[in-house]
Amino acid sequence: MGAVPLLGEFEQIVLLAILRLEDDAYGVTIRDEIAARTDRDPSPGALYTTLDRMEEKGLVTSSFGQATPERGGRAKRYFRVTAKGEAAVASAQRAYQQLLKGLKLRGVTNA
Amino acid sequence: MRSTRVAEWILAQVTSRERAAAVIGDLLEKVPARGQLWFWWSVVTTAVALVWRDVSTNPMRMLRLGFAAFFLQFVLLLLVLAVAFVAFVVIGVLAHRPQLMASWTHFSTAMFVTVWCVVAVVQFSVGRWLARHSPEHELAPCVAYSIIGLTFSLAVSLSFAQPGVLQTIRTIVSTAGFVVWDLPIYAGAVSVRRKRAA
Prior knowledge:
The complex is a heterodimer of chains A (111) and B (198).
Chain A: H1 9-21, H2 27-38, H3 44-56, E1 60-68, E2 74-81, H4 83-100
Antiparallel strand pairs in A: 1-2
Chain B: H1 2-12, H2 17-34, H3 36-57, H4 59-95, H5 104-132, H6 140-159, H7 165-197
């Protein structure tokens, strides 16, 4: 594996949401997971451009599922985090942990 | 539903058909909770975000294409206007014959309409040229072209601007005019994309 790519904040959030959702990660569930865990409501445009960019960088892969009636007969596009994506998010989180070490931040228990 | 097909067509201009369908499916799942207005707002903002990503991924190439399109359009329009001018002169001389005087007004109107149609055809061809030079991202160079045009138009308007509400309205109208002026370019790019998809 080559150098671990640097991730933006939103990319990390999306990757973590996909990892949490495991086999059920598609546009709607990813947005819902982000909204539930971070109190942010990302715009669909921001989410889909980020997902496309991460797929081009090899951080996630996507595949199409079955079409369903509530979606007007349209298939879901499921996402999975690749080994490269997992390494990138782990590296970014390690860097955060190192920076947080010894800091006393209000509302952060493990700082 | 016809309206969702329109929405899917809009998104299919800036991403693959399968991805466009998946995005529309995602948005449809949320319509009962969020409503139609949210659906259309999301379609438009997603399309804008996707096309802007295409522009920002390779901005220098897109700007080069945009400037090249301006040059191409300038040359083509000069040719068309030269032909129109010669036609005006020739017919104008003929029109001074008494029997043709009555038809002069109709003729000048017809020429005016013809010139505008030819300008639209030139714009359409420039759009096709841009799209052929940017496979898979056909609309991105058109956006770069529009940005260059709008920047130029605003710069010219503001350099000659007198302070006041009237001037502001004039600037807004001229900017809006530029957007309408660019529509045949986008139509040309869409026609190339449709051909490629088929």
